[in-house]
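Hey team,

Sharing the Polysaccharide ABC transporter ATP-binding protein run so nobody has to redo it. Sequence (345 residues) first:
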Amino acid sequence: MSNSTVPRSRAEAETTETASRAADATGEQPGKKKLSGKLSLRLRLRRDRTLILMTLPAVALVLVFNYIPILGNVVAFQEYDPYVSSNGFVAMLESPWVGVEQFERIFADSAFWDAVRNTLVLFGLQLVLFFPIPIVLALLINSVIRPRIRAVSQAILYLPHFFSWVLVITVFQQIFGGAGIIAQTLRQHGYEGFDLMTDPGIFKFLVTAEGVWKDAGWGIIVFLAALASVSPDLYEAAAMDGAGRWRRMWHVTLPALRPVIALLLVLRVGDALTVGFEQILLQRDAVGPGAAEVLDTYVWWNGVRNQDFSYAAAAGLIKGLVSVALVLAANKVAHFMGEQGVYKK
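Structure output:
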């Protein structure tokens, strides 16, 4: 055997060994061609069967409580009578069809338009006053150097999120009500007391303040999670370039929050017609329906209290369709501004 053959054999052996190691790492067998294309549905189900089994309870809950009730929207085109049969499904089949008569009644009802106006005003206040507050608080907490102070501040702000609306309204009643702390203090010093909890003129601002106190902590957690993903090297590089704290926040922190802000803004616009059913229902009688009636309480009042199920279903269907349109429109705006939104373009 010549000397030139030995190096060649060694090179071939090394090449074969390297290929074998690569095959072991990728699960491929030497000498076999790599399979091209995607896995079949059967293979993917077999591969992910554990994950699928884990998600089945959640999927079942969503189907039962979110998707199957959608079929009940057909009563919006009927004169639904639940007393036709003891079975609600049979009663739905036997109720007479009336076409769009329920929608004509809704659009001719001035109380419906009052509810729409109150809903939109509350949404505007919450968007302008409530939406930016968690961002500001998250930036302030993120600027705190000591971890213990940061953790305590975050816990204090997040704690009201676990309070029920009954407790939140009770706290506000004890402070701003006619027999509250502020009114009693004013009377003790010779001034006239007041009752903000029953004043229709400031009811919408009161509802917004209650929402800020209760749910601002939830938004803070979302924005702090986004801030945690910002590399410290970016702040160090900006500081080395002479950027102060405000410039670092404007050019480093806020751009990092833009995708999260865009996503939450799209979702908030989609919920423009949902401004707090339980919160407002608890205070509706105190200020009157003229100031407190929103679409959710309007649907509840007509469907549950007045037993006009078809009318309430039609109003709820209008609200749902408008909400879907708002989500799609807001998502288009997010794509136009270069953000991802709810889904990729």
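The chain has two domains: 43-99, 109-336.

Ping me if you want the raw files.
A.
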